[in-house]
Amino acid sequence: MPSLNKVIIIGNVGSEPEMRFTPSGKPVTSFSVATNWAFTTPEGERKQETEWFHVVAWNKLAEQCNQFLGKGRLVYAEGRIHTRAWEGQDGQQHTRMEVIANRVIFLDRRGGTGTLSEDKVDEAGGGDIEPDDLQF
Fold first, then answer.
1. Which of 35, 40, 64, 67 is 20–30 Å from 117 (CA)?
2. Exposed, middle or buried, 133 (CB in 10 Å: 0-12/13-18/19+)?
3. How many CB atoms lie within 10 A of CB 105?
């Protein structure tokens, strides 16, 4: 039976992107995105909820996100949900759901708009991510 793991979010970048490199030298950039949902309660009170997403981009897409994104920018991010688990320095187990981006579109006018996609990177010889590359 086929399955699908796809997510699309549109929101504002919550902090400056952080770019790192894996031991094998592949770039990875992570940034947070806030989405808002406004609604009216049955009592007529207007409320707003904010949901935070952690977005991760790899390779050329990571470099471009690091270069062009900044706190407050409106962004479209498309990818798949991935749950990452690790042990902290305090010995505690931690988990985090992340959006592994394969497409990013800049939606506001600061610096112009642009579309970034892993598809273009793959056509240029981007390649797959190896399990050893996930250690950072």
1. 35
2. middle
3. 15
Residues in contact with 104: Cβ distance below 8 Å, sequence separation at least 6, in sequence order: 57, 61, 64, 65, 69, 75, 76, 77, 78, 115, 116, 117
Summarize the confidence of residues 48-56 as an average pLDDT.
Answer: 96
User: 107-124: per-residue pLDDT in tens?
Assistant: 986 544 455 555 443 333
Predicted TM-score (pTM) of the model is 0.76
Count of domains forming the chain: 1
Is there a domain that residue 95 lies in?
yes
Mean of the per-residue pLDDT values of the chain: 85
Distance CA 53, CA 31 (A): 8
User: How many angstroms separate the Cα of 92 from the Cα of each of 84, 95, 97?
Assistant: 14, 10, 17
